[in-house]
Amino acid sequence: MKEWEYQPPPDIDATLAETLQNFPREPRMLPYTLRSIAALLLRGWMRVYHRLQIDGREHLPEEGSYILVCNHTSHLDTLCMMCAVPMKKIHRTFPAAAADYFFSSLPRSAVSAILINALPFNRKLKGAESLAVCSKLLENEGNVLIIFPEGTRTTTGEMGRFRSGIGRLVAGTDLVVLPCHLAGGVKAWPKGKLFARPKKLYLRVGAAQSYGKSEKSAASVKAICEDLQERVASLGRNSA
Amino acid sequence: MSIEQAMHSQIFLTYLTIVGGLLIFAGSVLGILYLIGKDVSGPARTYRGWIMMIPIVLGTIFLGREATIIGVVLLAIIGFKEFARATGLYEDWWMTGTVYLAIAILGIVSFIPDPRLDQQGWYGFFMALPVFVIAAILLIPILRNRAKGQLQKVALAILGFIYFGWMFMHLGFLANTPNAYGYLLYLVFAVEINDIAAFTFGKIFGKRKLREEISPNKTMAGSVGAITVSLALPWLLWFSFPQFQPIHLILTGIIVGVGGQLGDLVISYIKRDIGIKDMGATIKGHGGILDRVDSMIFVAPIFFHMVRWFHGIG
Fold it and tell me: pLDDT at residue B301 above 90?
């Protein structure tokens, strides 16, 4: 009789904290259940409390991976973007989140990893390494990456300059990027306030872009960033 | 079992004193050893694990029947989860989901009263449940029309449910018995003492290996020492079950002394076969939940049926 083959997971000796910080995550039943419930509640809450309106959903590709980029005004941005993708993709939607903030403690890691499904993005030291994780993620069909290229929340309401990361990620590849703009975030949840106020939010999803013909040079990376920034800004002007 | 009864239960209060005293004593010994310059980092880690676990266990029993049953259900679910992860069964959500549900049902039938008898806990359904759960698990490959590799999954799921779910849940069902405090506290205490005795005697006198292919650290001396201690313990703690006659005390000693070590060895060879060191990393310094409750899984159901045969559970 041939012996059975067991396949214990590589992280079997990982503690809870390590499991939460590991990326990519294994599919596990309890986080999936909690995340599905949280996503449903979130959709209801955003619609009722913030009267969230989403335009341009038809631009979201049915198949394949894509990146959503958005202006960053508050924590509500991530939540709105998560409401924009179809419910069945909720476990394959990864908002890139600053590792130094969202994975800094056990409770935060738990919320970030289980409910938000955040991708821990190291914005200080290993930008290149985190970008490599992103491209690997997008190689798998059907994953969605949410990125805020400004890198941090705006305090003034003015959109900041897009950092080079998004450009480096998509230059010379077939990756699809959708520029998005969220209006109302600054008023609804100013940086530093504990709770969001019941202000209206308006999310516009723009047409899909691809930068396959661009070179991987610094100049073209800069051009991509400027192009995306302009597209996000123009979505904002149209919605105003 | 309730908070009210626990506060007036002589048995509960006595165990609280004994355990509290032992913890303080062990802590002082560790402290002294540390002060005279010995390396106690290993035992200290284990001790911190105890400091975390003991209040949870005693607190759960203190809260009463409901909390105890829920507590054992949670342990069984986490235990099965560790088993499923270690074997790779956890990738099959139909199998694991069915077993989780079945363990939850075990908890419910332990909780609700018997509809025909005036008794807490539906004993008849509890004992019959494996029939339906095994049927349900066997049904899964048919429902999804798949054959390849299904026997292994079915076998692992059935073993997982029967051993980590059903046999272990006998401990929770003990909460329904009139002498629940005595049985539960004695079992938890005696099983731990048995483990500690095996370790200590093994460390001091151990030469010949007990089962070197399964667990290289266990020795004959440790095993004999543990059985001796476990045989003596029921006499010392006779107040836990005043209705027991000497023969029941001897049986209790054998069940805990032998069964505890067998439970340990069972988890050991499962781990060895899979090729892992610990079942998980849930408790710092103690490995996974299964590494901690391994002896209890074996002891609880046998003790339960011994008690039921001689003294009844209603």
Answer: yes
